[in-house]
Design a protein that fits this description.
With 157 residues, this protein is an alpha+beta fold. It has two helices and seven strands; from the N terminus they run αβββαββββ. The chain has one domain.
Amino acid sequence: MKQKGFSLIELVVVIAITGILAATAIPKFLNITTNAKESVLLQVKKAVVTVDAMVYGQALLQGVEKEESGSLEVDGTTYPLTYGHLDLEKDTFMHFFETDLNINNLTFDDNNEPLGDIVIYGGEKRYAYDLIPDCRLEVRQDSETGVYKYDMVDNDC
């Protein structure tokens, strides 16, 4: 009587081939995740550049782009500026930039006041005194020109 089914050797060969395919696919999947996180940070950076350009344009129109500590009124709310650029204080910045990512001030002075830089990252909520993840966008503001400087840290994406 002839039995239907696969022999043990055929099953072992199929399992071995499946294992080899899985071993090559998993690293590629992990790399895709890293690339996605890095892409999100790049898009966030572009959004920050756009917000800065819009605010600076309004400052130019109102003639406050050369003031060391000017202000900009938008929809009845006044926002602080440094040489025409929006001050990098988390709460002020959040009015112009809506995201599910976490935005916090990166450094603080002795009185717990923000020092003109922010960090943007995904994941659980963290604060400047906690360990900041190695997958983040840091935005710093030059105190003499108000211009933003960007530093993308993608060691642990």
